[in-house]
Design a protein that fits this description.
Strand order of the largest sheet: 5-4-1-6-7-8
Largest sheet: 6 strands, parallel
Helix content: 40-55%
Number of strands: 8
Distance between the termini: 7 Å
Radius of gyration: 18 Å
Mean pLDDT: 95
Number of helices: 8
Structural class: alpha/beta
Length: about 230
């Protein structure tokens, strides 16, 4: 099916946990920043439960955990310092051990070839978005990329989806969103867009089906069956 015969004209995608398994590099960078402040190291599985609301909240959750485990009271300036150091480390390790999930690249290429407009909507810091897409050779497939600082509001607020509707002259029902976390499902539902929930990403260790997306898929390529 091409975009001419599909209900959908635009397909939006979350980034971390949807297109890219970025957990290894995020955990590496969080731990490097914690270590510099003499704070304990967190497991990847624990870092996974902190992802999804942007870098500030990720570091906030990490420091809350570290303070509990070290018995230290952390000052505001320490928070700012760890946040800044995380940003530096992550900037250097964006795609060190991160990988695209299976079938992502070929599925995106097929969707683009069929005439769909593709976009990225992520809460990841905006300046890190393009470098990640470029590193995996998929940056040219997207007509718009929105990161955590691109607009005044981030997911679960529907603002990014409304922005895409306005920019490309579409109704919400013509937009399909694909994500892996509760924030993605909430944003899509609030905007009136259909949404796919992927089971393999980062959703605070809660099954994505509990957020009631329109479809639940284990494999990224399954998107091709519904568009």
């Amino acid at each position: 099916m091409t975009s001419q015969t599909s209900q959908f004209k635009l397909i939006g995608f979350d980034l971390d946990g949807t297109l890219v398994n970025s957990l290894p590099d995020l955990a590496l960078s969080v731990n490097a920043a914690l270590a510099e402040s003499g704070l304990p190291q967190a497991s990847e599985q624990l870092v996974l439960t902190w992802i999804g609301n942007g870098a500030d909240i990720l570091i906030g959750r990490a420091l809350e955990w570290a303070a509990q485990h070290s018995g230290r009271q952390l000052k505001d300036e320490e928070f700012e310092q760890v946040k800044a150091r995380f940003s530096v480390h992550y900037g250097e390790n964006l795609c060190n051990i991160s990988r695209l999930y299976p079938h992502v690249k070929e599925t995106l290429e097929q969707l683009k070839a069929r005439g769909f407009i593709l976009a990225v909507i992520t809460n990841k810091p905006t300046r890190h978005v393009q470098p990640v897409l470029k590193a995996f050779g998929i940056d040219h497939l997207f007509s718009e990329t929105l990161g955590g600082q691109s607009l005044p509001a981030i997911k679960p607020h529907p603002a990014p989806l409304y922005y895409l509707c306005g920019k490309f002259g579409l109704y919400p029902k013509q937009v399909l969103f694909v994500g892996d976390s509760r924030n993605d499902i909430l944003a899509a539902h609030a905007a009136g867009c259909a949404v796919v929930g992927l089971t393999y990403g980062y959703n605070y260790n809660i099954p994505i089906a509990e957020s009631k997306p329109d479809w639940v898929f284990d494999d990224f390529a399954q998107i091709l069956h519904i568009v």
